[in-house]
Hints:
The protein is α/β, with parallel strands linked by helices. It is built from nine helices and six strands, in the order ααβαβααββααβαβα. The chain has two domains: about 5-100 and about 155-220, Rossmann fold (3-Layer(aba) Sandwich), CATH 3.40.50; about 105-145, no CATH class. Helices cover about 40% and strands about 15% of the residues. It has a four-stranded parallel sheet, with helices on both faces. The longest helix has 15 residues, at about 35-50.
Amino acid sequence: MFRKLLAEFGQDRSAYAPDLPGYGESDAPETPPSVAEYAAAVGDMLDTLRLREVDLLGHQTGSLVAAELAVVRPHQVRRVVLAGVPVFDPKEREAYHQRPWPARPGKTVRTSWRNGSASAAGEVPACRWRVSGRCWPPRCRPAMRRPGAGRRGRLPAADRLPMLRQPTLLLRSRDEFWDMTARAEALMGDARRVDLANHDGGLFDAGVADVVRYLREFLDR
Length: 221
């Protein structure tokens, strides 16, 4: 997901995109982790790498993980960027907890399959992962994991976002999190918000140039 962003940012700084437990190449725990447990896992990585000061970018559930890290490690986290923040109203929260698992492949998975299934020569890549007998490219894995990755429990946005003290940038994309990210801004008060155009290919794919521009302006101050 962050491959294009890493390629750009890695030119002049150290940039990392860790898989949360149960996502990407990481093993899923036996029970669904809380946001605090996800944050603790990323914190362990920061300690292992001996990073004294970091800027954080989080997307969707990752935005709450980034916020949690910023709250519990205020002297280590310098600036925070949050995109697609899941601040649910009661109806949305109920619908979220009623989602079946494993989820049926949605638009993101179908798009990833199309983008990853054929090379420029029209060849299908070697199969590296299977679900229900079907071969899926690595980009599809986060959406197809088992319950340890998909059931994230309570998302504590209302509790933690008001506690952020670091300079914070909100990236608001015209997707299903458009209204939710506005609610996040209301919870935080001092955060700066940027509204981005709708990118059908994804905020960090087709829209990566806009994201990079705003990130550099915010982080390089």
